[in-house]
Amino acid sequence: MFGARLQAAMDEHGPLCVGIDPHDHLLEAWSLPRTAAGLREFSLRTVTELAGNVAAVKPQSAFYEQYGSAGVAVLEETLAACREHDLISVLDIKRGDIGSTMGAYARAYLDPASALAADSITVSPYLGFGALDPAFELANAHDRGVFVLALTSNPEGAEVQHAKCGESVEGFGDSVAGTIVGQVAARNSSESAQGLGRFGLVVGATIGSGARELGFDPSACGGPILAPGVGAQGAGISELIDVFGTDAIAANQILATTSRAVLSAGADGVRAAARSLNESLTQVG
């Protein structure tokens, strides 16, 4: 099962996931052109340097899409390189739609017959949690993972995620974010997950006591938690403990995500930067 594969990778390589976010300034810092060719060199070099050193990488689809079809072709190559190097991919697409459209997105990113298929994807539940069913069903059929946005660190997110929805999910409160966590937990339970389930969450590493104040524990979802915000955005092991507690971290349920803190080290420094940050995230007091 995807959750077990990810947890095994974290056991072996540490809890770090590196976002492959080819910002213009990073391409320039690597002395690469702001073109699809520069994007390709940046992405494939990053995969090569990080394979065997981190549990997963998280390509951000938007940075590839902005280059049109040539950029999407590079994304296909990047995902293929992850498979070749046995490096788990979390494709950050944040898709969320209804009906046949969601089904098409699911086939694009979760069906192994697609060149864009990843080991796991991020999705948005804000057109209704049930609208994500095609992604859940295809992930189950092909042993893929799905990370559902629940409680993000951007200030704009609170107006939706913290809102009260009128119904309470037992153990998770009545906030929109809490009901999402509860529904992910139910999904994992219904799949009879052994260890971590294949369905996880996206919860910001910098939200502090946000989940506690809303009355739920994200780790109760039963699946892995993608926690962006480590490194340049200010989160380290202390912040992760504040959000998730020591038990979830020690159990390798939290996939701590960074981008700039590693990629800004340059092509020759990526591996060392990842190892150093990984080591700091395993020092749970």
Report on the structure:
With 285 residues, the chain is α/β, with parallel strands linked by helices. The chain has helices at residues 2-13, 24-29, 36-50, 61-65, 69-84, 99-110, 133-142, 158-161, 176-190, 210-214, 237-250, 260-263, 270-281, and strands spanning 16-20, 56-59, 88-95, 120-123, 145-151, 164-169, 173-175, 199-203, 225-228, 254-258. Helix 3 (36-50) runs parallel beside helix 5 and helix 6 packs parallel to helix 7 (133-142). The radius of gyration is 18 Å and the shape is globular. The model has no long low-confidence stretch (mean pLDDT 94).
Quick one: overall form?
A: globular
Strand proportion: 15-25%
Report the CATH C-level class.
Answer: Alpha Beta
Determine Rg (CA atoms, Å).
18 Å
Largest sheet, spatial ordering of strands: 1-2-3-4-5-8-9-10
How would a textbook summarize the main sheet? Answer: 8 strands, parallel, barrel
SSE ordering: HEHHEHHEHEHEHEEHEHEHEHH
The helix count comes to: 13
Model regions low in confidence, pLDDT < 50 over at least 5 residues:
none
Per DSSP E runs of 2 or more residues, the count of β-strands stands at 10
Overall domain count: 1
Could you tell me the mean pLDDT? 94
> How is the CATH topology named?
TIM Barrel
Q: What is the CATH architecture annotation?
A: Alpha-Beta Barrel
CATH superfamily: Aldolase class I
Helical proportion, percent range: 40-55%
**N- to C-terminal separation?**
30 Å
